[in-house]
Amino acid sequence: MAPPMTLFLLTIIVQLCNGEMAARKFPAMLVFGDSTVDAGNNNYITTLFRGDHPPYGMDFPGKISTGRLSDGKLIPDMLASRLGLKESVPPFLQPNLSDDEILTGVSFASAGSGYDELTSVVSQAIPVSKQPGYLRDHVKRVKNIVGEERASRIVSNALVMVSAGTNDFIFNYYDLPTRRFQFSISQYQDFLLKKLHKLVKELYHLGCRKMVVSGLPPVGCLPIQMTAKSHLLRSCIDTENKDAESYNGKLKNLLPRIQAELQGSKILYADIYSPMIQMMNNPNKYGFEEIRRGCCGSGLLEAGPLCNGLTQVCSNPSKYMFWDSIHPSESTYRFLALNLTLELLPEFS
Questions:
Q1: What is the pLDDT of residue 232?
Q2: What is the average per-residue pLDDT within 78-96?
Q3: What pLDDT score does 230 carry?
Q4: H-helix or E-strand containing 14?
Q5: Is 35 a residue of the active site?
Q6: pLDDT at 21
Q7: Fewest CB atoms within 10 Å of the CB: 62, 88, 210, 300?
Q8: Alpha-carbon distance 195 to 258, whole Å?
Q9: Which of 324, 325, 329, 331 is flagged as catalytic?
């Protein structure tokens, strides 16, 4: 009998083959959010929240520090490859993007951003609410390249990803409790969901129709949160995880209502929480040896400017669930991307 890991990999291969039909439906990808999907836009603005230096990108092709806050590729890159679009999704602010790059999609995301504009006051990132403004400029360029009719088809059939929210809770509620003085946790969740609702409607009015909106990860299991509140035991912070579950439940219920408002739209919820909890509970199944600290430095605090060329790095990032104290490793993203490919993309007709 094959060992468990071999069976697991065989299952993945079979599922990937079954998912091939879902991988040819989208002419482009358009990506909005925070560092989980920022391909390097922060390289072109004034902020410390950047991954444009080693050891970031050590597993990216060519070992290039692109601005992605991981050791390698992000989920949009992996999905773009699966869709046959390209091997990576570039940042919109990258100068001199080719017409082909423009037509097949870009990322407007900014590391350190959130739905709450106050989040970007701390990080100096591009708030998620401002990112549709870049989409307007992008659509104009697409129209200039292929004409208005084809541009409309590209945008309406593009796979749109939205991934944000974690920074809002960490920056404004848990670690820097500015919003805690104004809102209960339930009220702050509702406040953010109103912002998200407005964002999705704006994307719709700009022509987007096929959207995937990510929920929160288990925030209390991020290494930096363990360091802040469970430094010795290094156990997940249950209250923060319960808050994430509660927010995700509200988001999952909200999206069908938004879809019903926006004729011709398809808006799906992407569950990030459950697969990450499964990885935490069954690390060996996924090939992980370390799930409580990042690969970069001590793995307890280092991220962004603190994860740099002077910090030590683990010998094999693929054995780590987290790359730094906040961001998943490329290996973790690969499992999440696989889940999205199999569970969500077939839902789009």
A1: 81
A2: 96
A3: 82
A4: helix 4-18
A5: yes
A6: 42
A7: 62
A8: 13
A9: 324
On whether the CB atoms of residues 142 and 103 are closer than 8 A, the answer is yes
The CATH label, of 3.20.20.70, 3.50.50.60, 3.40.50.1110, 2.40.100.20, for the domain at 20-219+235-287+331-347 is 3.40.50.1110
231 falls in which pLDDT band (50, 70, 90)?
confident
Tell me the whole-structure pTM to 2 decimals. Answer: 0.93
User: Residue written as tokens 């692109």?
Assistant: 66
The counts of H helices and E strands in the chain are 12, 7
Q: Could you tell me if 273 and 216 are in contact, meaning their C-beta atoms sit under 8 angstroms apart?
A: yes
320, β-bridge pairs: 290
Which residue of the set 71, 271, 327, 329 is catalytic? 327
Q: Which amino acid is at 75?
A: I
> What's the mean pLDDT in 131-141?
98
User: Scanning the structure block, which residue is given the tokens 């987007």?
Assistant: 208
Ranking 22-31, 115-124, 214-223, 241-250 by mean pLDDT, the lowest is 22-31
> Residue 12: is its pLDDT beyond 60?
no
Say whether 324 is catalytic: yes
Strand segments (E) across the chain: 29-33, 105-107, 159-163, 210-214, 266-270, 290-294, 320-322
Tell me the H-state helices in 126-285.
131-146, 148-157, 166-169, 185-205, 223-229, 238-261, 273-281
- Among 34, 35, 243, 331, which one carries the catalytic annotation? 35
Specify burial of residue 317 (Cβ count, 10 A radius: 0-12, 13-18, 19+). buried
- Number of neighbouring beta carbons within 10 Å of residue 201: 15
